[in-house]
Amino acid sequence: MSETPTPMLRAVNVHKSFGRHEVLRGISLEVLPGEVMCLLGPSGSGKSTFLRCVNHLETTDRGRIYVDDELIGGRLHNGKIYELKDKAICKSRVKMGMVFQHFNLFPHMTVLGNLIEGPVHVKREPKEVAVDRARTLLARVGLTDKEDNYPRQLSGGQQQRVAIARALAMEPKLMLFDEPTSALDPELVGEVLSVMKDLAQSGMTMLVVTHEIGFARGVAHKVGLMDGGVIVESGSPADVLDNSSNERTRSFLSKVPS
In sequence order, what DSSP letters do the residues of the chain get, joined into one string? Predict the structure, then answer.
């Protein structure tokens, strides 16, 4: 019998509040290397907050998050977690690529400049190495001819594809997507989902917050439905999206285009 691989992402009883508002109320999940997990759920259910906790853009109040078997944001000593210094947090964050809803490209840099900024200034790679990888990634996302353009000269779909390439330029082990198509015009959604599908098929481990049910059904290994800061149901796309007996899941899916 083969051993189960160590999860690339493991969250254990994660809690997060903003003031008196408890946003995450005990999130636990695992994503194995090479798996894609999609998180679905209504707005305000805590999906994006959880993603930001994984990347330590938000600190957790309780619970633990491990990426590639490394505790994110803290070190464990005598049963207590101590917050790491910013430099150590940045070092662990390099393992993760994050793609945001609104692209977050550097407006004053060209497309190529956006892609090489992290590798050169964070990872201290030689510029020529970073440029070679950037051009390979731009070809992968279908934007070879845009390296000298600025973000304002691109469509939303093109900007999001650049954002994906920029995240990949850091050679992450885990990709995080926070509703990457929700800010796009409907006709541009397909080009971004196509890049994400190709990425999934290449074996990249991905955690995707999305409302794209078709993408989740066709690409994800696991689907989780979040509501009220908890995971209401999780399992295979077939179990959750097509054969769920959970009333909350069925109610949510009945209101979302499939």
Answer: -PPPPPPSEEEEEEEEEETTEEEEEEEEEEE-TT-EEEEE--TTSSHHHHHHHHTTSS--SEEEEEETTEESSEEEETTEEEEPPHHHHHHHHTTEEEE-TT----TTS-HHHHHHHHHHHTS---HHHHHHHHHHHHHHTT-GGGTT--GGGS-HHHHHHHHHHHHHTT--SEEEEESTTTTS-HHHHHHHHHHHHHHHHTT-EEEEE---HHHHHHH-SEEEEEETTEEEEEE-HIIIIIS---HHHHHHHHTS--
